[in-house]
Design goal:
The chain has one domain: Outer membrane efflux proteins (OEP) (Up-down Bundle). It is built from ten helices and six strands, in the order αααβαβααβααββααβ. It has helices spanning about 1-15, 30-40, 40-60, 75-80, 100-170, 175-210, 235-245, 245-265, 305-370, 375-410; strands spanning about 65-70, 90-100, 230, 270-280, 285-295, 420. The protein has a four-stranded antiparallel β-sheet, with no helix packed on it. Strands 3-6 form a two-stranded antiparallel ribbon. A hairpin with a 2-residue loop joins strand 4 and strand 5 (about 285-295). The two termini are about 50 Å apart.
């Protein structure tokens, strides 16, 4: 009996030292909004996208013009011939290089496709973080449910211990039954301690995703119910091809590779240069000259051919990577879908059969023990069975929400609008 009292005081002390602070910020939607704003991974992806947008303006601009100044001081011999009447010659010139007209256009297009790819990576990072937040959230939710269930079982077991002590005092129960009850109580108390420790881990995980201080606690978590959601497998597989940011990013990179291949072929075409030059002597403007030139891709069989072959190989590489990504994503969608559906069925089995039967078996054993028709070990076994099924039920509820988060991440969008009610 002393052990039972000490264990109860220890559990109370743990709950006192680990308070739960209720807060509006503990709603799932508010935590997701907070993660989207503060998560370092998302911020890094956002800045990477913004940098790529700036590069589009860079590549659509001409090279800087060149300004040249030439100073020509005639030598002393020439100065003697001219009887000291010579003066230095100053020449000013400005030139501008122009790529072949279509090259600048293609470079801009390629940069835009690359920026679009980074935009999709930004969205993909957001969805990954949302999925991680949901997973940590429902792991914490499950942990809280297990703590509450364990506390309720401790209260129930305490009542059984009181009945056992009463029966022992009148020689209707053995001392072994009392000891077994106390051992069971101690085991449950130890489980509660471990659950409290796990709670700190899940809270720390959630804090990391939200960029919170590690000692931040969360209030009561809201319970979600996604059992009524129903999806058509073919529909969400098709949706994944259109909505998954990772796949859209590959599509943009594929288009960029196609443009790069076309741009490599244009290396066979010349670039141009325009130059204007004016001379000045004795402070007076002299003659001027204009010049136009162009590059001659003379060594095309070595230089330009290599550019084309490289671009062609990169294009084929991106095509293969895109196909591999599509195959893997469709596999992820199918696997997440099957897990979601199987978990729904498992929850239904627990709710309609397993839990009611386990509860009825325990109630019967409890009444039978009180009326001395059931052995104590049978009562203890029925309590353990009920507790295990209750734990598994809550685990299934959390698994359902986590599998839905996995499915939404695999498809690339919120599925609440594409589902139909059962």
């Amino acid at each position: 009996m002393t052990k039972k009292i000490l264990a109860g005081l220890f559990v109370t002390l743990i709950l006192f030292l680990n308070p739960i602070y209720a807060s509006d910020s503990s709603s799932l939607n508010s935590l997701i909004d907070e993660a989207l704003e503060n998560n370092p991974q998302i911020r890094a992806a956002k800045f990477r996208y913004e940098a790529s947008k700036s590069r589009v303006r860079l590549l659509r601009t001409l090279e800087d013009p060149k300004f040249e100044y030439e100073y020509d001081k005639i030598t002393a011999d020439m100065d003697a011939v001219m009887h000291g009447k010579t003066a230095p010659m100053r020449t000013f010139s400005i030139s501008q290089e122009f790529p072949f007209p279509t090259k600048l256009f293609l470079r801009k297009q390629a940069a835009e496709k690359e920026a679009n790819s980074y935009a999709q990576e930004y969205k993909d990072t957001e969805q990954k973080v949302i999925k991680d937040v949901k997973e940590a959230y429902f792991q914490l939710f499950l942990n809280n449910k297990k703590i509450i269930l364990t506390q309720e079982n401790l209260q129930l077991l305490n009542q059984i211990i009181e009945v056992t002590n009463t029966k022992y005092s009148v020689n209707k129960a053995s001392q072994q039954d009392v000891l077994k009850a106390q051992v069971e109580y101690s085991k449950l108390s130890n489980q509660l301690i471990l659950l409290e420790q796990e709670k700190d881990i899940f809270q720390s995980m959630l804090n990391s995703l939200l960029n919170h201080p590690q000692d931040t606690t969360f209030g009561e978590l809201e319970e979600k119910n996604s059992k009524s959601l129903k999806f058509e497998q073919d529909k969400i597989l098709h949706l994944a091809k259109e909505a998954r940011p990772e796949l859209l990013s590959f599509k943009e990179m594929l288009r960029k590779s196609e443009i790069d291949f076309a741009l490599a072929k244009q290396e066979y075409l010349p670039d141009f240069m325009i130059k204007y030059k004016r001379e000045q002597k004795d402070g007076k403007a002299g003659s001027w000259a204009g010049m136009i030139g162009m590059t001659v891709p003379l060594w095309f069989w070595d230089k330009q051919d290599s550019f084309v072959k490289e671009a062609k190989a990169q294009l084929e590489q991106v095509k293969a990577e895109y196909q591999a990504a599509e195959n893997m994503i469709l596999f992820e969608v199918r696997a997440s879908y099957l897990k979601f559906e199987s978990t729904k069925k498992l929850i239904e089995i627990y709710e309609t059969g397993v839990l009611p039967q386990a509860q009825a078996a325990f109630d019967t054993a409890r009444l039978g023990y009180q009326s001395e028709k059931t052995e104590f070990l049978d009562l203890l076994d029925s309590l353990r069975t009920l507790r295990e099924f209750q734990m598994e039920y809550f685990e299934s509820l959390a698994d359902l929400e986590i599998s839905l988060a996995d499915l939404e991440r695999s498809v690339g969008t919120d599925l609440s609008m594409v589902s139909r009610k059962e």
